[in-house]
Amino acid sequence: MGNNSTHDFFPRAERSHASGHSETMHRRPSRARMPSSVGYLLAAFVAAIALFFGLWWTLVSGGDEAPWIPAGLAASVVLLVALSAREVVMRRAWTRYLLDQGSDPSMRTSGEHKRPSVKSQSTSLLSAAWRNIQKQAEDADSGSNPEPHFDVFHLCQDYLVTTEDALRSNTLSSDKRNSIRSAQEQVRSLQKHHLLTWARDSSRSLTYEAQQRARTSERIEAANRALHCLESALQFYPNETDLQESSVAIREFIASVKVAHWVELAERSAFKGHYRRAIDRYKDALFYVSRGAMKEDVRAASMERIGREIALLQTRLRSPKNGKAENGQAEGVNTPEGTSR
Questions:
Q1: Rounded CA gap, 273 and 332, in Å?
Q2: What pLDDT, on the 0 to 100 scale, is given for residue 198?
Q3: From CA 279, how far away is CA 282, in angstroms rounded?
Q4: Which of 82, 151, 181, 306 is the right S-S partner for 44, CB 3.0 to 4.6 Å?
């Protein structure tokens, strides 16, 4: 989490502001464009075609005998990803369109006779955005995929920013202001619920994936991704006990994976008679025991067990027979075990 800021991980929709009175006098007010599903699909198709011909030309220049196969596969992957993400992208685009329309300055005119209709339109758009959030929240709660919860969190963020702008505009009646503030409280509650649900479900899924991995590096990578989800949520809600406990548990899991890796390497070396190498690897395991996130009783038990193994290996190494054999192996030809370190 060192270089990943909260704004990088939870990006907010940018909102344009007028640069000056003179510029607005010579430039017509711009209106937000309505999201188009056809335009999205057309852009995805054009991108896939461009990727196909670009990759095909590169492979032809490199002398590939069948360049259309990898080029076609790459273009197909782009289309499949675009189609699978279409619903989420268009849903968020429509919500942002509604929110931007509700806070667009061009919707507000200076004439007193137009203000009532502008107020009504702005509040109706905010109401539509609030109903859309409620619908998306219900869909997310009814499913098992954690990503829709993350989308609802973003929708809540956008809604809160837009309603704050509307409340500062001084164009709303007291009843409308009270209604918006009431909706804001409900949105904040939904925002917290869906962010915590996303962090919990995502971290569980990634932790389970880490437990199923065979390679140590892959297990640590998946566990770090789970930890990243939890720490991102903790930046918004640092006092959540469940997030803190889950974060500690994943850190302990990462430390145990590293310790188990070096203990296994030490046991292999000891089994093959490489006692000096086994001692060095047990010391590497001790390093991660002392530095890793562990409970104190687990740390003490692990250090005691590894210390006994090191003492046993040192005793074997001091015996004349084993010491002579170890020196002979060190002076001999490198074995696969010897070249692995």
A1: 14
A2: 92
A3: 5
A4: 82
